[in-house]
Amino acid sequence: MPEAFVQPVVSVIIPVRNMAYMLPSALMSVRQQTFTKFEVIVVDDASTDVSYNVAQEFSEHDPRIRVIRLEENVGAPSAFNAGLDRAQGRYIAHLAADDYWLSDFLERCVRSLRLNPRAVGAYTDFVLRQEGGSKEWRVPDFDRKQLMLEDYVNFSALLMRYPVMLDPRKEPVSDWDALLRLTAHGPLVHVREVCAVRRMHNKQI
Question: Fewer CB within a 10 Å sphere, N or C end of the chain?
Fold first, then answer.
């Protein structure tokens, strides 16, 4: 059983729409983190499958998990923002419902932010998993000029020091837009370890 609830250091926000078959992997990957002072806010974006029920079942077994149900489909950026409005953590992470973390993701990123007080976020390398195989993505070290040309940071492999809203008007590059706004205030730290898995499939939100 998880430890008694304490003020979270990290808020993990998981927007979900019709991902009942993948959501458990995302939630289990957070519960299995070696860094345990977190909260999880699952925002169900008016799913028509049992995504909400899956999230509720997890929340019944772990008080760190909260579930918000939206009555209307607003899209992933607005669903993330709804979770951000309720976040209590010092640091913010977005985790897509179809992605997941390795067990040391939060520990490595929190440590990096504590060691680099000027940094506005920490990001890791990741595995890209799709039908036909997997590939490790060793991403470049932070360079804002390069980031303005190429979105090489996986938004689900990023821990932010400051909350940044996603702009629905910028879809499908709202996460890239958020990264550029975030890094206008300082650098990112690159954690040169594979700590996340991004799954590519034909039903992404």
Answer: N
